[in-house]
Amino acid sequence: MIPETLQIDRPLLDARTVAEGFRGNDQTWCDGHDQLQGLLRVLYPAYRIEYSYAVSGTFPWSSPDHERDSALVDGLFEDNDAGLAMERQSARTTDRIHPRERYGDESVPTVVLGHHGDEARAADVLPTRLEHERERARRETETLRERIGDAEDAGDYTEARRLRHRLQTDDGGDPLSELRDTYGLPDAVGADSFESVERVDRVFLPFWIAEWHLALGVVCLGSVVAGSYLRLTE
Prior knowledge:
- This protein has helices spanning 15-24, 99-103, 119-153, 157-169, 177-183; strands at residues 6-8, 36-55, 65-74, 95-97, 110-112, 194-213, 219-221.
- By secondary structure, the protein is α+β, with helices and mostly antiparallel strands.
């Protein structure tokens, strides 16, 4: 059932403009075959997660400040959040639309994909990932301390000093690099500075799926799962 209203991150170009652009563009699509057969407008579900985190105060004696940012969680598939990373900036602000009014008179079909799960599940994704990272870091620290003790017991003080230096400098790189790529976490966000999820909104990311005819009746279809879709926006 299509909702009465929904929030989209940005409007799409109309179907006529998109089709004319394909037919009049010298660029070839789908391995050189540019015979456009049809268009399908899809509204893809996502959860916009607004979270808060602590940052150091202006002065050493100041209390921590608190800032907010947002991330996108896939609303249809689990463990597919990285696929939405490029849309995070556009989804910071959304427009509320009436889909029947906006798309009801169009000559192309529109598919609104429903959200899988609920807001509670979406709100738990980022804190859970960060808690897993905190636990992993704790286990690594314990392992290093055990190795230092074993080296000292064995009289290998050079190895013990090397491991102690590694423990003190923590030169293993950014442990949250993957999460930063997926969710756009600022540098100030860490497993310990993250505070809580403040708000969860259901949003939709509109895009076009285009169909081309190839030789021998074969159809080339842009796929949302494969990511070969077209975000032709205003």
